[in-house]
Specification:
The complex is a heterodimer of chains A (442) and B (546).
Chain A lengths: L4 H14 L4 E17 L2 E19 L2 E7 L4 H17 L23 H4 L3 H17 L2 E18 L4 E17 L5 E8 L7 H14 L10 E7 L1 H13 L3 H5 L6 E2 L2 E2 L12 E3 L21 E5 L2 E2 L6 H7 L9 E4 L6 H6 L3 E15 L4 E14 L2 E5 L3 E5 L1 H6 L1 E4 L3 E2 L7 E4 L2 E11 L4
Parallel strand pairs in A: 7-14, 13-20
Antiparallel strand pairs in A: 1-2, 1-4, 2-3, 4-5, 5-6, 7-21, 8-9, 10-11, 10-13, 11-12, 14-15, 15-16, 15-17, 17-21, 18-21, 19-20
Helix pairs in contact in A: 1-2, 4-5
Chain B lengths: L4 H9 L32 H8 L7 H13 L4 E17 L2 E19 L2 E7 L4 H19 L15 E5 L11 H16 L4 E19 L4 E19 L4 E6 L5 E2 L3 H5 L2 H16 L2 E2 L3 E7 L1 H13 L4 H4 L29 E4 L20 E6 L2 E2 L6 H6 L9 E2 L8 E2 L4 E3 L8 H6 L3 E6 L4 E3 L5 E4 L3 E6 L2 E7 L1 E6 H6 L3 E2 L6 E10 L4 E9 L2 E9 L9
Parallel strand pairs in B: 4-6, 9-21, 10-17
Antiparallel strand pairs in B: 1-2, 1-5, 2-3, 5-6, 6-7, 6-8, 10-26, 11-12, 11-16, 12-13, 14-15, 17-20, 18-19, 19-22, 20-21, 22-26, 23-26, 24-25
Helix pairs in contact in B: 3-4, 5-7
Classes of the chains: A alpha+beta (442), B alpha+beta (546).
Chain lengths: 442, 546
């Protein structure tokens, strides 16, 4: 079990009571997770892990230090406070240090599913068995991961703030490959609710793509194409833009959103149909209402009608610039339409369908230009139909292109994330998307 | 790389302390080559012996034994229990102030079992006999449940039983240096860099890491080891607001398995004006003209290309499909060992977990197999895999190469990369020799953007600093450079190597792999070397710069 609110609050109280400095902050994260990994149509490793991290930040005269440990008893937590206070006494001043926040009001969010909390080896094994059945029936080789976590985060300050959030996540991803290694397909799903995860459906998606990519795929010439990016690929690329939404980097001239003497807030940078927002209370995809430093996360619109409306702004920078602080988002929703991927494909005369992107890295932050490769299902589109697999390709492209040159948006869906920020985004048809070179990788 | 031709050439002949790997004799580390692997470790230095004797893990050793016994009693055929403690101390400076001071510790016990031919694992940070016993039993029940879905049981190759202890060699414990001294050093370096007109921001950091683990296996092995790794860093940012351009320039110092002496040797204050000046040179450098070109890759750049194209493709778990869902598979398959030519005849690549300073250097791996050195590529031919006890058994080898590693108590141990290094050329060339022999090319140093596909064919790498080479001379700095190639074409195009004096170690402390994802620390040594690649201009999505 991860720590319940009452247990966490008691530990935070113990720490704050032991503090001798006036500015002490305590963050406790705890989790219980389970996983079953598989490859070659059989389980490989399985695990159950209990984690706890108690982190104490003490500040004296604007000099701070953070000390953390895996202790859950009162003497251990008090020892962390003592070490943090001692280290703070040695640390140099940080003129950007902000006083601790007092009590805050948070949105009510229910992100815990009791069915996920109770998951154990039998349920993990049953889910993986369903994936393996699909793969074996299709004479494919499946690998993947079934994973679930129940975690809680608590944050308290010596100014009287106490915040607590708990959530569950269950994830299944699988890659099905043909036994001759010539074809590969991927499927994945992630939710806070067990009932949303259909292992057989995830496996079928991967298996279908593996079948469709079987055999020798022709290579397309590098260049600009009309591309249908599935939601997973959209999120893979959009993450670079969300990560670039910092007001400070923009104001200091270190970002795509920099302008002479300021930033690009208010500018129509993208297509008029583009809307990107965050919402902790989304009923299907709830996320934490507690932001960095205890700032409340609220519904925030980042881009509307293609216009940039908000940049993330830490407390010190906000104060210096005379603006309100804006914490970094923990959920990203992009508005879309109603069409599914096959509906979008039907509208494309000539183009490429991309399942997901891999090894994505920033090339040039001035343009948010990134590089990476297509993977596990890349197809040619002719006259509204998939006409066969093509070799994977490296792209050198910016999410800005995606939001500027989108021709059509499909129905948004939750994708599999790695960074702990929820992405619910549509598949997108984009024109003029650049592929730079061909890869032989399957 | 230094910022002027003269400074550059001076550095290549009498390299500065920060960039040169110290002589082996300075280190009380394991011998460079030990084949066959010895059953006991080399003696640790006196300070190491004291560190081991004072270890808080010894207090909990009975719990590790309890985990092994409980899992055996529950029916496991093999068990290993690991007490793992991490300490990470980071201090960071931005411009004129300290932005972060942190000391983070992480400690618990993980137990891995083989039961009915399947793996199970459980971990807890609650170090009491009930929690540990429960974890051991739950690992066994997980394994038994998995075994029902397995057509073939896992088997392990044999390994000698060892009892030993080892502490990675160092001269000065990074955790014993006062925080105020570290802050003073970083603030001084930042001040010097900020004094260069045109530099807008400076970030400087020192990360010290201490990893300690006590491993007990059901076969009777007991291994207690302590590792220290350090990473100094300095980055200058230059901004041209009028033209809307900005660049960053990083110090090219590598993380090392070493003590604070490595931070001292990096000479952050002395190097700060060079780094700052080079940031400005980058800002005003000429855009690269793309095309097929010769590039000379400095060790500070080439290490990462070795890591991605050779290090990962020769992991046997990838070749067998165990990583297919995440990290990917490999263009190398088990039948290609000893047969496939993947580089020119001068390409000799060696795996070595005994290399002094190497981040993946150890005395034994996480299943008590002794550290080794072995060939990966010989005369351009792929000859050796990275293996663990279960992987070795899967391909019919009789012993493991000792590559098992878990990145903490809560992580299941699995195959991770050893130090994999390109051997220097016999001709003894200097970097200057390589430049002089190049008519039209680019000298690339430092780590930039990097990306490679899931079977390790197609890669595209950037760098930190780029010198144009014309007619055997460094002419001017370039910007927006990346090189793209396919692994076999790239290594086949290798036509010149620096000699032993030009060999340096690079590395990373955060190589990601596995699900749930884990992080590994690994080094790669190499001389500068020359290749033919596709150079692209990264200022536009077309790769042409226009």
């Amino acid at each position: 079990m991860s720590l319940r609110r009452s247990e966490a609050q008691a530990l935070v109280k113990t720490a704050l009571k032991a503090a001798t400095l006036a500015d002490v902050r305590v963050r406790i994260t705890s989790s219980r997770s389970g996983n079953l990994r598989f490859a070659g149509n059989a389980p490989t490793t399985a695990g159950e892990v209990e984690r706890l991290d108690v982190s104490v930040t003490a500040t004296r005269d604007q000099a701070s230090a953070t000390v953390s440990g895996t202790t859950r008893d009162a003497p251990g937590v008090i020892a962390l406070v003592r070490r943090a206070e001692a280290l703070a006494a040695l640390a140099p001043k940080d003129p950007e240090h902000m006083p601790p926040l007092g009590p805050q009001t948070y949105l009510r969010v229910d992100a815990e599913d009791p069915a996920v909390v109770k998951l154990g080896p039998d349920e993990r094994s049953d889910a993986v068995a369903r994936v393996l059945k699909v793969a074996r029936d299709a004479k494919l080789v499946a690998s993947g991961l079934y994973e679930h976590v129940h975690r809680s985060m608590s944050f308290g300050t010596s100014a009287g703030l106490f915040a607590y959030h708990a959530d569950t996540t269950v994830t299944l991803t699988t890659t099905c490959r043909t036994s001759d290694g010539s074809g590969s397909g991927w499927g994945g799903a992630m939710s806070h609710r067990l009932a949303d995860l259909d292992a057989t459906a995830v496996a079928r998606r991967a298996a279908d793509k593996a079948e469709m990519t079987r055999g020798t795929a022709p290579a397309l010439a590098p260049g600009a194409y009309t591309v249908v990016l599935e939601a997973q690929a959209v999120a893979d690329l959009l993450g670079f833009l969300i990560g670039s939404l910092g007001a400070r980097a923009a104001d200091e001239g270190r970002s795509f959103f920099s302008r002479p003497g300021g930033n690009a807030l208010g500018e129509a940078l993208f297509g008029p149909q583009i809307r990107v927002y965050s919402d902790p209370q989304d009923p299907a995809h709830p996320s934490t209402p507690v932001g960095t430093d205890g700032l409340p996360l609220t519904k925030t619109t980042w881009i509307d009608q293609g216009k940039l409306l908000a940049l993330t702004t830490p407390r010190w920078w906000a104060q210096k610039q005379g603006r309100a602080p804006v914490p970094a988002p923990r959920s990203v929703f992009m508005a879309g339409g109603t069409a599914d991927v096959s509906g979008l494909v039907r509208g494309v005369q000539s183009g490429v369908l991309v399942t997901r992107l891999w090894y994505n890295r920033m090339l040039d932050p001035r343009q948010i230009l990134a590089t990476g490769l297509t993977r596990d299902g890349t197809f040619k589109i002719d006259a509204g139909k998939l006409t066969g697999a093509v070799k994977n390709m490296r792209y050198n492209e910016s999410p800005v292109t995606l939001l500027k040159q989108a021709l059509a948006l499909g129905k948004p869906e939750r994708v599999v994330d790695e960074g702990g920020t929820i992405y619910v985004v549509p598949p997108i048809v984009v024109e003029g998307f650049h592929f730079a070179s061909v890869s032989d990788a399957v | 790389m230094p910022s002027t031709r003269r400074a550059f050439l001076a550095a290549t002949t009498a390299a500065t302390a920060g960039l040169v790997w110290p002589h082996r004799e300075a280190w009380a580390g394991p011998a460079p080559a030990r084949v066959p692997a010895p059953a006991s470790a080399p003696a640790s230095a006196d300070a190491g012996a004291r560190m081991l004797a004072m270890s808080p893990l010894l207090r909990d050793e009975p719990l590790a034994q309890l985990a092994v016994d409980a899992a055996r009693k529950a029916g496991a055929s093999y068990v290993d229990a690991r007490l793992v403690a991490w300490q990470r101390e980071q201090i960071s400076v931005r411009d004129d102030h300290v932005s972060d001071v942190g000391l983070r510790t992480d400690y618990g016990l993980g137990v891995r079992v083989l039961a009915d031919g399947a793996w199970g694992f459980a971990a807890t940070q609650r170090l009491d006999s009930k929690s540990v016993g429960d974890a051991a039993r739950s690992a066994v029940s997980m394994a038994r449940r998995s075994a029902l879905l397995m057509p073939e049981p896992i088997s392990l190759v044999a390994t000698p039983v060892v009892r030993g202890a080892w502490v990675s060699p160092m001269q000065q414990d990074p955790f014993a240096v006062p925080m105020a001294d570290k802050a003073g050093l970083l603030l001084a370096a930042a001040r010097v860099a900020m004094a260069i007109k045109g530099v807008a921001h400076v970030d400087a950091t020192i990360l010290g890491v201490r990893e300690e683990k006590l491993l007990i296996t059901s076969e009777g092995s007991r291994v207690h080891q302590i590792f220290h790794r350090v990473l100094p860093g300095l980055t200058a940012t230059a901004i041209d607001r009028r033209r809307g351009r900005f660049v960053t320039r990083d110090h090219e110092v590598a993380p090392m398995l070493a003590g604070y002496e490595h931070v001292t040797a990096a000479d952050l204050v002395g190097q700060a004006p060079v780094i700052a000046d080079e940031a400005l040179q980058k800002l005003h450098a000429a855009p690269v003209v793309p095309g097929k070109k010769q590039v000379i890759l400095a060790p500070s750049n080439l290490w990462l290309t070795i890591h991605e194209s050779i290090g990962h493709s020769t992991e046997l778990d990838r070749a067998l499909g165990w990583e297919a869902n995440f990290a990917g598979t490999s263009f190398l398959t088990p039948d290609k060992r000893g047969k496939l030519k993947i580089g020119s005849e001068r390409v000799q690549i060696t795996a070595d977990r005994t290399q002094p300073g190497g981040l993946a250097t150890t005395a034994w791996d996480d299943e008590a197999v002794a550290a080794q050195r072995w060939a990966i590529v010989e005369d351009g031919v792929f000859v050796g895999w990275q293996t663990t006890r279960d992987l070795a058994a899967a391909v019919g080898d009789t012993s493991s190469r000792g590559c098992l590693y878990a990145d903490g108590y809560g992580s299941v141990a699995f195959p991770r990369m050893p130090n994999v290094s390109l051997q220097p050329g016999a001709e003894g060339y200097t970097t200057e020799d390589l430049i002089n022999a190049t008519d039209d090319g680019i000298l690339i140093s430092g780590r930039g953007s990097w990306s490679i596909d899931q079977q390790r064919y197609n890669f595209q790498f950037g760098g930190q600093f780029f010198w144009e080479i014309k007619k055997g001379r460094l002419t001017r700095p370039l910007r927006d450079v990346a090189y793209q190639a396919n692994t076999v074409e790239f290594w086949s195009s290798c036509d010149m190597l620096g000699g032993a004096a030009s060999y340096r170690l690079g590395g990373t402390i955060s190589d990601g792999k596995g699900e749930p994802s884990q992080s590994n620390a690994v080094s790669h040594g190499c001389p500068p070397a020359r290749f033919t690649v596709n150079v692209i201009n990264t200022s536009t999505n077309t790769g042409s710069g226009t």
